[in-house]
Design goal:
3 helices, eight-stranded antiparallel sheet, Jelly Rolls, 3 domains, single chain, elongated, mainly beta, Elongation Factor Tu (Ef-tu), domain 3
Length: 420
C-alpha cells in the first residue's frame, strides 16, 4: 500500500485550459474555480482536457472530482518541449514546387504514422531518384528529419549527410521510422535530401522537418508552441490508458445512482486519479473515457495536477467524517423536524514520526495559504477501493497546523482538511 499523498501546488491554476468539448457555459475554466457547484461538462462520454503553462513545472499526479463510473479510463501525457519552427516550405506536401524532384513519381493519400492518410508514396522511375529541399538558415547546427518506410523493392535508400558531402544509407522496413541527418548543416544552408538508388523501388514519406538545433524534435508544420502535444508523438511522459476511478459514487438516500453521481453538495461524486514518475512539463493532455457513465456525459468540478508529497511513515491515526449541515428543531406540537442541508467530507490525520526531510517539506506545504485547495489521498492504490474513495478529497485546511518536536530527530503534526 502506498503512503498518504498530498498535491498542494496545483499547476492547473497557472495553465491555460481547454477542453475538446464543453456544454454551453460549463467550460474548462470551471475546473479551477474552487467551487464544486461550478463544473466543466463534456458533450459525450469521451473528452480531452489540455493545458499549457507559462513556465515548466513538475508533476507526478492528476486528480479530478466528477461524475465518473468505476470503469472510467484516463490517459495522461506531458510535454516539456521548447518552441521551435519548421523551416521547410510545404513540409508534408511533396508535390509542392519547393521540393526538387528527379526520376520519381509522387502519389498522395497513403496511410501515415499518425493513423490518417497523411503520407506520400515516392516511386523511382530510374536509378538514383531524388527529392530534396534546400533552405537558407542561421549559422549553427540545424537538424533535418522525416518519417519514412519501405513500400516496395530492396535497393538502397539514403539521406544526405549534414555536411552535404555524402549519403547515409537507411535500414528501412515496412514499419514507420523517423530518420534524421547527423545534426544539420553548420553553415547558412541546410537541406533535406532523399535518394532512391534502384529504379522501381518505392518508399512512403511523411512529416518532413528542418529546425535549428542539433537534434530533431516533434514534427509541426510551422511555428510550434512550447509544450505542444499532438495525438501521437509530442510528449515526455505517456501513461497509456489506465483505470482512473477506484470506486463509484456513493448512492445517496433518496437519490438515484445517476443523480448521486453528480450530487457533489450532498456527498456524491467520485474521484478519478493517476500517479506517475515525477516529470517536468510545459503542457498536458488528459484523455477521459467513461462509456458506462450513468448520465451520458463526463462532468468534473475540479482538476488538480502537480507533484505529490508522501511521508516516509504513514499517519498514526486518521478519520473520515461526513459533516451534515442539517439542523433539527421542535415544533409547537413537540415533533422533531429537520431542515435538510448539504453534506461535506472532513478528514483528520496525525503524523507522529516524521524525519527531518519530511518535516521540512511539510512545513513548506503548510506555509501555503489555507484558501487554496489541496488534493489529499490517505490510501492511494489500496486494495479496498471503497476505503481509498472514502479517504480521498480535494479540500482546504481548516486550521493552522503546528509541527512539533516529538523526540530528538522526529517531528509530528495534525492536519484537518474539509472538502470544497
Amino acid at each position: 500500500m502506498a503512503n498518504l499523498r498530498i498535491i498542494a501546488s496545483n499547476a492547473a491554476r497557472r495553465a491555460t485550459l481547454t477542453a475538446s468539448s464543453a456544454d454551453g457555459l460549463l467550460a474548462a475554466t470551471n475546473l479551477v474555480a474552487d467551487k464544486k457547484s461550478d463544473v466543466w461538462r463534456a458533450t459525450s462520454t469521451a473528452a480531452r482536457i489540455s493545458g499549457t503553462l507559462p513556465a515548466p513545472e513538475l508533476a507526478s499526479g492528476v486528480a479530478l472530482l466528477g461524475n465518473f463510473s468505476p470503469t472510467t479510463t484516463m490517459r495522461v501525457r506531458l510535454s516539456n518541449e521548447l518552441p521551435a519552427t519548421n523551416l521547410l516550405t510545404a513540409p508534408n506536401d511533396f508535390t509542392n514546387a519547393a521540393w526538387t524532384r528527379s526520376n520519381l513519381t509522387v502519389a498522395t493519400g497513403a496511410a501515415g504514422p499518425d493513423g490518417a492518410n497523411s503520407a506520400t508514396t515516392l516511386t523511382a522511375t530510374a536509378a538514383n531518384a531524388e527529392i530534396k529541399q534546400v533552405r537558407t538558415v542561421a549559422a549553427g547546427a540545424n537538424a533535418s528529419s522525416i518519417f519514412i518506410r519501405r513500400r516496395a523493392g530492396s535497393g538502397t535508400v539514403s539521406i544526405r549527410n549534414a555536411a552535404n558531402t555524402g549519403w547515409i544509407p537507411l535500414a528501412l522496413t515496412a514499419a514507420w521510422a523517423r530518420v534524421a541527418n547527423d545534426g544539420g548543416a553548420t553553415g547558412t544552408s541546410a537541406l533535406l535530401d532523399i535518394l532512391i538508388a534502384t529504379a522501381g523501388d518505392a518508399i512512403d514519406v511523411c512529416f518532413a522537418q528542418l529546425e535549428a538545433g542539433p537534434v530533431a524534435t516533434s514534427y509541426y508544420p510551422g511555428a510550434r508552441p512550447a509544450g505542444y502535444i499532438d495525438t501521437w508523438q509530442s510528449y515526455d511522459y505517456d501513461s497509456g490508458v489506465v483505470p482512473a476511478c477506484p470506486a463509484p459514487a456513493i448512492q445517496l438516500e433518496g437519490w438515484t445512482a445517476a443523480k448521486s453521481a453528480s450530487a457533489y453538495a450532498y456527498g456524491g461524486g467520485a474521484y478519478a486519479r493517476a500517479w506517475f514518475p515525477v516529470t517536468q512539463f510545459r503542457a498536458f493532455a488528459i484523455d477521459l473515457v467513461d462509456t458506462n457513465n450513468l448520465q451520458g456525459y463526463i462532468e468534473a468540478a475540479q482538476l488538480v495536477i502537480g507533484q505529490y508529497w508522501s511521508p516516509a511513515y504513514n499517519p498514526t491515526s486518521g478519520s473520515a467524517t461526513d459533516v451534515d449541515a442539517t439542523t433539527h428543531y421542535r415544533t409547537g406540537a413537540g415533533d422533531l423536524m429537520s431542515r435538510a442541508s448539504t453534506v461535506h467530507k472532513k478528514v483528520a490525520i496525525e503524523l507522529e514520526y516524521m524525519p527531518a526531510e519530511d518535516r521540512a517539506t511539510l512545513a513548506n506545504i503548510l506555509r501555503g495559504s489555507r484558501a487554496r485547495p489541496v488534493f489529499f489521498s490517505l490510501f492511494p492504490g489500496h486494495a479496498d477501493l471503497a476505503l481509498e474513495r472514502d479517504h480521498t478529497l480535494i479540500g482546504k485546511r481548516m486550521s493552522d497546523s503546528e509541527v512539533a518536536v516529538q523526540m530528538a530527530i522526529r517531528y509530528g503534526t495534525k492536519l484537518d482538511i474539509e472538502s470544497i
